[in-house]
Design a protein that fits this description.
The complex is a heterodimer of chains A (207) and B (655). Chain A has 207 residues and is mainly alpha-helical. The radius of gyration of chain A is 20 Å and the shape is elongated. Chain A contains 6 helices and no strands. Chain B folds into 2 domains: 42 residues; 565 residues, Cytochrome c oxidase-like, subunit I domain (Cytochrome C Oxidase, Chain A, Up-down Bundle), CATH 1.20.210.10. Chain B has 20 helices and 2 strands. A two-stranded antiparallel ribbon of chain B has the order 1-2. In chain B, helix 10 runs antiparallel to helix 11 and helix 12 runs antiparallel to helix 14. Chain B is globular. Classes of the chains: A mainly alpha (207), B mainly alpha (655). Chains A and B meet through helix 1 and helix 5 of A and helix 7, helix 8, helix 9 and helix 19 of B. Chain A: It is a multi-pass membrane protein. Chain A: Keywords: Cell membrane, Membrane, Oxidoreductase, Transmembrane, Transmembrane helix. Chain A: Belongs to the cytochrome c oxidase subunit 3 family.
Chain lengths: 207, 655
Amino acid sequence: MMDSLLSQKNKSTLPLEYSTEEGDLRIVGFWIFLAAELVLFGTLFGTYLVLQSHTAGGPNAHDLFEIGPVMAETIVLLVSSFTCGLSTMELRRHNNKGLIGWLIITILLGLVFVGLEANEFYTYAAHEGATLSTSAFLSGFFILLGTHGCHVSLGIVWIIGILLQLRKRGITPVTARKAFMVGLYWHFLDVVWIFIFTAVYLTGWVI
Amino acid sequence: MIESIKSFLGYFFVTGDPMIYGADASIALASIGIVVVLTYFKKWKWLWEEWLTTVDHKRIGIMYIIAALLMLFRGGVDALMMRTQLTLPNLHFLNSEHYNQVFTTHGTIMIIFVAMPFIFGLMNIAVPLQIGARDVAFPFLNALSFWLFFAGAMLFNLSFVIGGSPDAGWSGYAPFAGAELNPGVGQNYYVLGVQISGIGSLATGINFLVTIIKMRAPGMTLFKMPMFTWSILITSVIVVFAFPAFTVALALMTIDRLFGAHFFTIAAGGSPMLWANLFWFWGHPEVYIVLLPVFGIFSEVIATFAHKTLFGYAVMVWSMVAISVLSFITWLHHFFTMGNTAPVNAFFSVSTMLIAIPTGVKIFNWLFTLNKGRIEFTTPMLWALAFIPNFTIGGITGVMLAMAPADYQYHNSYFLVAHFHSTLIAGTVFGIFCGLHYWWPKMFGYLLDERKGKWSFWIFMISFNICFMPMYFLGLMGMTRRMYTYPAGLGWTPINIVITIGAFGMGLGFIIMAWNIIWSAIHGKRDTTGDPWGGRTLEWTTSSPAPEYNFAHIPEISTRDPLAAMKEGKTGDLRKSSKPYEPIHMPNNSGIPVIMSGFMFIAGFGFVFEWYWMGIPGLIGVVACMIARSFVYNDHHYIPVDEIEKTEAATGRLS
């Protein structure tokens, strides 16, 4: 079964992660999973945009958002996406050390991002009294950003798991597939952040 | 101290109703009975190794169907309780609160825990066989999907003996379903039970999408696929794009209820309408998730027993594609009366009516397939034939409901209740019964008895009409849905009596079917050919039940209906190959799906009662299982050639 499809293709031209039928199937499955994630975040964005003006006498976007920490989060996450891309390049070059190194840098940046975001949430809650239950606007805000933050945190745990496997097994078709897929996931979260930056912060400041 | 234990037990267990005590006793007895039987016959190891840890799509399919049949029994009992209460005016068989709980659990169970798992069961059994594959793309994930569904179903069903059932309807509308108006654990059970099984459904959608796109036998292009496989491909796309919206809606409701957020509350700027929109953005596509697969089943069965090629294959496919696209832009017709502007209502009115066009095309294609066919009236064919007129009635009343101005008249009346039961019973339920009889020999190696099958069909089908036809008129006479009793003198009483008789008739039909299953297990005709019906597609080229690896050689396809083409002498023998056998790569069984779902159940139960000391460790268990799985590298084995030869020789396929 596993070789039936590949017998027609030239195996040597395929990257390692696509070289087995199993790897090929899982990568396609993961793309479809990301499509489902897109709907999930789309629904959260829709919810947030509907509730954005429902501040119920509590703080609104203007009162709350500060440009400094948000820019820091954005830059850190975008750079982490870049380093994640470099890790995939090292994967294609079959350089395990480089792959591991760039992945470690990626999760360190991810941790900084999560820390900055936690600090942002804490600032809002402690200094402005803006919590999940203050208003519908803030419910939407915290859950949209919180869902993204949870995804990043889960991604960090996932990369750590893959790092352990890469260290033990080196680059094999299986570990290559895992490293490639976590890269897709990481870039996806970056794309979501771009939309958050636009739909939440940018419209918050402008409108 | 004793007082506080007493008050806890009073809160924890549902008390005060003799029927609930009866249910407590029967659940306890059934559980003890199962444990005793398994221990006495030393079957624990067998249960664990052959079933609980299996990743074989055929066994997972069987488990889905068993669970769905049990849930159908539960949902059916709910229905009969409601009909008993409504037989005569001013009855007190159920009080208003209990009645609310019963219609809520009836609806939720029938859609989420009967229709979907039954269809998932049939597609698990048939799709890999129809496309000539040895399993689905992700067998481990498939097992996980099943166990998540099962954990969700069990959590939801626990509510009626522990803590109290949800009572806000299967659509769980805000603000009534929110924490302020609906305190207690009932709605928590709803949001969490449905959420857990929904994660499994999403995974199934992804799994079958990849399976069908990537794992078809060589030569089987998309437009040579069997129609059932086509319907599952399109359904999987709908699942992938509709379910995440529901995941979000349920999560937001959970956060509202447990952590005091304001998504759907009246206070602090929340929007109850937002719930209705999010729910039905999933809920309307969901209707087609449970309908398109049975369209596929009927297409297979009608072609097989009319002994003709399906009429208008390509049109059948494109009409399903059209339905799937339209299904995403009609959700608002579920709440025309909630105060939308006229242009909005008009748009959704038109988009809803448009669905009648591709659906009508399909109806005519089935009729043209029958035209000049040599029709064989087997039990599956009877279900398929009954579907056409009965479902059409449901469809046409749907067009009536789609007219927004008229909908103000019959919205939420028994007219609506009759409409959606006409589509969901004459469509989905007839379809799953049809598929059950059709693929039963492929699942178990023997046929269900035709005589008993026909009895159950005629009783169920006639009773269905006795039950739901009068409901249209009752609705036009003004009786609204979800009312727990009604005064005498409105002229509703005789019709309600007829409806209740019909409902119990359907129960009788179901009992005969259950009896048929038991009887046939002992006396049923064995299927030694693997092709008891004169089938047209690949699943009938392998033995019944299919061997673990499905096909010793992956068949090569050159036409639609490859088995029919082979019988007509157009192609060579699909069952035999001159090539030598090769060891077959198979996935290993795994205990992780069932254990992980157990943790999910624990987490869900903890969050239902807002016991975070229980919920959070449960979630940690889930994550630990995911990590453990990531480190499993020894996850497959090979079936050696001599074992394949032995199996094939036993079926007579070895020349």
